[in-house]
Amino acid sequence: MLFHYHFWTPYLEETEKFYKDNGFRVSQRIGKYEGEFQTFNPPLSWNDFRDKNILFRIIETRKGAVNITFGYGKKIRFDHIGFFVSLEEHNKICENAITMKWLVKKGEKRTFITTPYGFRIELQINADVVDAATDIAEIEELTIVTKVRGLQNDLSTLFNTPVKNISSIAGEEVTIKQGIIKGILSTDVVDPNGVRIFNGV
Fold this sequence. Notes:
This is VOC domain-containing protein. The protein is α/β, with parallel strands linked by helices. The protein is built from four helices and 14 strands. Strand 10 (138-146), helix 4 and strand 11 form a beta-alpha-beta unit.
């Protein structure tokens, strides 16, 4: 199940506000302050720490089966998409990635696969990364801009099945052009990082 995407961006507060305005909740904020990583989770708001020199590593927003994260970057950069999979699926996908000569990096909490398309794929087996019980929100489709062609065929090989909720178009900058997210509060809106979002049916 496609559940996630991540951007690096200079527009952290604006991005958080955008997703909160569309029904997401902020589940965590982790940033480096005075030399060490600390949490600035709700109920803290930006008014509590806006003037502090915090380098945010991750801000996580959730709605239903959707988890969208972002961290500070000097410019907007799309980093990865995430799929929730079973342990059996995880192991098979990793085997396929190695056969495809894609780099696989397994961690305690998640696995990252580096693609030749300028972004990574996260594999997640822990159900607590989403709030699926809260409402019907889910990512129905993402359109990704890539510099080279072949993404959809490679994803079908990686997952051993057609991946129908990812489409790609050619462009000069790798990013998510648009997404269809079922259950958000608005439609045909653009987030601060250039992702056009439509409400699914």
